[in-house]
Amino acid sequence: MVRSAPRQPVPARRADAERNIAAILEAATRLLSADPAASVADIAKAAGVGRVTLYGHFPSREALVDAVLEHAVGLADAVLDDPALDERPAPEAMAALLHSSWEVLDRHRRLFVAADRIMATERIREHHERPLRRVERLIERGRRDGDFRTDLPLPWLVTTFFSIIHSAAQERESGRLPAEDVERVLVTTMLSLLTSPA
Amino acid sequence: MVRSAPRQPVPARRADAERNIAAILEAATRLLSADPAASVADIAKAAGVGRVTLYGHFPSREALVDAVLEHAVGLADAVLDDPALDERPAPEAMAALLHSSWEVLDRHRRLFVAADRIMATERIREHHERPLRRVERLIERGRRDGDFRTDLPLPWLVTTFFSIIHSAAQERESGRLPAEDVERVLVTTMLSLLTSPA
User: Fold this and answer.
1) Averaged in consecutive runs of 10 residues, what is the pLDDT profile of chain A (198 residues)?
2) Which residues form a coiled coil (chains A, B) (predicted)?
3) What is the 3-state secondary structure (H, E, C) of B98-124?
């Protein structure tokens, strides 16, 4: 194949490969977060590439899921890594963070369900640590500043943060929570949880 | 067999059957809540009965899971159906309810994971409705009495009740939340969530 198409310049081939990789990661993220059991064949089809091309870039399902997680963590991290957040009081920063990133964080969680089936726990934990630490640091700052409660353990508050996002996503899917109410409900619930009762 | 043991009186045989059924339900509840994929053979073994005896009482895995759910709902309902709860202010009643029943409610939830794999959604929903309605009624009363918030939808508050219990159970299992802290953390979290900020 390389010999029969010698005139295609290298940069164009590299651009093709990058386009394919981006399409595969986008399709894999979409399909795996909807159904953790989505097949590699379905992912290739949705990405508009052949299975051989997909396996050329990602030699196994595990390698693909690993890359998808890395990609999703990168997206979540980019959203969470907003220097403006650090300058605002913790409750405001928390509200802004929920507004900007609850969907990214929930998609992220779904991908972990897919990963959980095929990857080593340690590798999954590494991926999970970064966004978790960012949320933890924000809650910690709120506690230091006297804005957030200190009568409940920090890890528990971090857990409820993710659990509340997960519940809201499920309620929206089932139609019990109208899409336009999700953000208000999330922010109100989370701030009540984090704010010490007077 | 009946002919070769004709002297065993009928009440004794009935008592045997009831003991077997109780042992099977107890073992099935325990095994299925630890692992939703637990096999009928393992359940029979843990109950100390043969598979033939088990199938004599529960002709299919579905019939067994259905009976286990019915049994678990009965237990949860018995704990929740405490007339004393109705006489106390809603926040106190909520704290008492969490104390008495969070473990029952969490076990209950795990059984639904097992049921989800083999039973029709409608049948599962019927089982789930009763305890859910009791929690809903308590929260509703608290809202009417001005003790609980009305700025968040009632179904959302019911969902977070179950989701918080589930998170606490997971945190305890993972060792991140010491067993002796679970109840205090649950009650504090739930009341913060239900109580409108001043």
Assistant:
1) 52 84 93 86 95 94 89 80 86 90 76 69 70 90 95 93 86 86 94 80
2) none
3) HHHHHHHHHHHHHHHHHHHHHCCHHHH
Q: Do B195 and A198 touch (CB under 8 A)?
A: no
Look up tokens 């049921």; give the residue. Answer: B115
B160 touches chain A (CB under 8 A): yes
Rounded to whole angstroms, the Cα distance separating A114 from A128 reads 13
Whether the CB of B128 is below 8 Å from some CB of chain A: the reply is no
Summarize chain A as % helix, strand, coil (round to 5).
Answer: 80, 0, 20
Q: Which domains does chain B have, with CATH numbers?
A: 1-59 (1.10.10), 61-194 (1.10.357.10)
User: What are the chain A neighbours of B176 within 8 Å (beta carbons)?
Assistant: 155-156, 159
Residue type, A173: E
Confirm if A164 and B160 have CB atoms less than 8 A apart.
Answer: yes
Contacts of A192 in chain B (CB under 8 A): 149, 192-193, 195, 197
Q: Is the ipTM of this complex over 0.90?
A: no
Q: Which residue has the tokens 């004599």?
A: B56
